[in-house]
Amino acid sequence: MIEAQLGRCVASWYPGATGVTGAARLSGGASQETWKFDIVHPDGDVGAILRRSPPGYAASPSPSRGVDLDGEAVLMQLAHDAGLPSPRVMHVLTPADELGRGFIMMRVEGETIARKILRDDEFAKARPLLARQIGRIAAGIHGLPHARLPDLRTNTTTAEIADLTRDYQKSNWPRPVFELALRWLADHDPGPSHEVTLVHGDFRHGNLIIGPDGVRAVLDWELAHFGDPMEDLGWICVNSWRFGEIDKPVGGFGTREDLFAGYEEAGGKADPDRVMFWEVMGTLRWGVMCGRMMQRFRNAPDHPMEQAMIGRRSSETEIDLLRLLAPRGK
Amino acid sequence: MQDEPTPSELIKAVADFLRNEITPVIKGHNAFKLRVGINALDLVTRQLTLEQGSDAAETARLKQLLGSDGPLIELNRALSEKIAKGEVDLQTPGLKEHLWQTTMDKLAVDQPNYGSYKRELGTK
Lengths: 330, 124
Fold this sequence. Notes:
The structure holds two protein chains of two kinds. Chain A is α+β, with helices and mostly antiparallel strands. Chain A has helices at 2-11, 69-81, 114-119, 127-142, 157-171, 176-188, 230-235, 256-265, 272-299, 305-311, 314-325, and strands at 19-27, 33-40, 46-53, 89-92, 101-106, 197-199, 208-211, 214-218, 225-227. Chain A has a five-stranded antiparallel sheet with strand order 1-2-3-5-4. Chain A has a two-stranded antiparallel ribbon with strand order 6-9. In chain A, strand 2 (33-40) and strand 3 (46-53) form a beta hairpin. In chain A, helix 4 (127-142) crosses helix 8, helix 5 packs antiparallel against helix 6 and helix 5 packs parallel to helix 9. The N and C termini of chain A lie far apart (63 Å). Chain B has one domain. Helices cover 74% and strands 0% of the residues of chain B. Chain B has helices at 7-22, 29-66, 72-85, 95-110, 115-122. Chain B is elongated and about 55 Å long. The mean pLDDT of chain B is 96. Classes of the chains: A alpha+beta, B mainly alpha. The A-B interface holds A 174-177, 179-180, 182-183, 239, 242, 244-246, 305-306, 308-309, 312-313, 315-316, 318-320, 322-323, 325-326, 328-329 and B 33, 36-37, 39-40, 43, 73, 76-77, 79-80, 83-84, 86, 89-90, 96, 99-100, 102-104, 106-107, 110-111, 114-117, 119-120, 123-124.
């Protein structure tokens, strides 16, 4: 059924398209779906992706923090126009499409699964180059022109600490290591950043499509906001995204030095102390999120065991916080 | 008194059956869920084996640190509160060692293959 709807939609803006084929649901919950499909065209089929909230659902998944799909489309298109690796947005859904809210973009082929990117031979040549390249991309994102950006929330270190404290307390489960981290964050809060830019907000494995030639696309702008650009650099250094390659702080493939070098090549100015602060914050953030998964597991009618097991991963962030804040032998 | 076999023996037997006999014949998303399920059973086996000893040691350390007694969760609440208020910190004798030992004992159950844990086991 969705192929017929998509076919009608595509025919209305893609000259020569005769329909769509191979529609398959990729991921997402009830309120937000991702579909892949091919646009059938006499000059050759074109791979595409639909991101949508189906009819009857609001376009924003989590109103307090999230960017809605219209905002995501604008950000992706701006990134694309700026020459950053970002899929071209082909069409923003209209009511006449009867497909709900969302957009259709070009499909970028490549890998998002960290373990493959870090271990498979086909990425061996790309791995040593990724940290620097990601630094350049981050600088590009942070340099996107304010005036053309959609309406986004603003985040600061102080607000983020308060937010994390609240989320942690909601779990009502005592974690002395998290308390230690919250205390450390409050004591070391660097205050407002003199530079406030667009921040991607979830810049890490899973949201980067990578090929043998390097990064091909940055995805998932749902958590984008205005704030301290060092937040993105800190988040990608969190140990939870190193997948066992713990001596390579940037995504398990590179060094902070390479990340910062790339960032500065593309006109950014890295502040290693603020990056380290955000790495601690990000480590705690992921730990608190794991705890929230546990709550969701308890509340969901089908008690999904994947979420239960993610709940048991909070302790991974506890050991990482101790390694950062209270290293042994010192 | 309940009879043998023990819960951990039963769970291990089920996990081994799923791992060795069922995994090879399951495909797709259910293969992923099966792996998660087996991991959960393995975690429970580790907890049944290790929990008593580590909880007893943690309780003893917390009594010493706090100078008070109570159920383990209440002792942890009390320690959390003291850290939040700044009444104890990393300069407090025994706190750092306590947090490290408690965290290592958690990882031994939750995720003994986690990179940071394996590294710290080797550099004690």
